[in-house]
Amino acid sequence: MQKYYQKIKNSSLFYGITDSELDRMLECFSATIKKYEEGDLIIRQGDIVTKIFLILEGEVNIEKDTYWGRRMIIQKLHANNNIGLSLVASKNVESNINAICTTDTLVLILNYEKCTRMCQNACSHHGALIDNLFKIISKENIELIEKIENISQKTIRDKLLTYLSNESIKNKSNTFEINFNRQELADYLNIDRSAMSFELSKLKQEGFIDFNKNKFKLKVEI
């Protein structure tokens, strides 16, 4: 635990909490650290989620499988991101997503009930932690609204342009890197990879965008 203490302390989950308070909290919340290998599932569709998962190292895709086995990527998560907070906060609701590691991943695991209820030790900063939880869940909801905006566009071209525009706004620059490889981006936008690649090449030829692998540049107004 001590090896990753600074990463835990710097996370948005424990924002505003001092070292001494964090020490007591980690003990109170039955904190453990678990290593997952690439391809491992942290949460599986159908699970009842009772733990808070904080990524310390690695990457995790939040995915959903259709009845016919098609993959849809909802989010890509990195260090300092939490997994499935909305699910654990909903209580006894079966997970409708898979959380799958795309690299070897290290996760801090906390008991949700102990995090959100005042314990016999009467930890004074439960309130700060709960406030942080609400902020994180709110941020996740904003990101999901953005995804709805991206995928609700009628054409592949419009889906790509909306997604790239939103990424440019978030990065406050017309030059930025995206988190997805090409297959992941197609799965995220729920479009065919070949058709997407064709549309990207067309936008590049028309002078609207430029790109090299995951690095994009928006060149002119559409």
What would you note in describing this structure?
The chain has two domains: 2-143, Jelly Rolls (Sandwich), CATH 2.60.120; 153-218, Winged helix-like DNA-binding domain superfamily/Winged helix DNA-binding domain (Arc Repressor Mutant, subunit A). The chain is 40% helix and 23% strand. The strands form three sheets. Strands 1-8-3-6 form a four-stranded antiparallel β-sheet. The chain has a four-stranded antiparallel β-sheet with strand order 2-7-4-5. A three-stranded antiparallel β-sheet has the order 9-11-10. The model has no long low-confidence stretch (mean pLDDT 90). It is elongated. The chain has 222 residues and is of the alpha+beta class. The protein starts with a helix and ends with a strand.
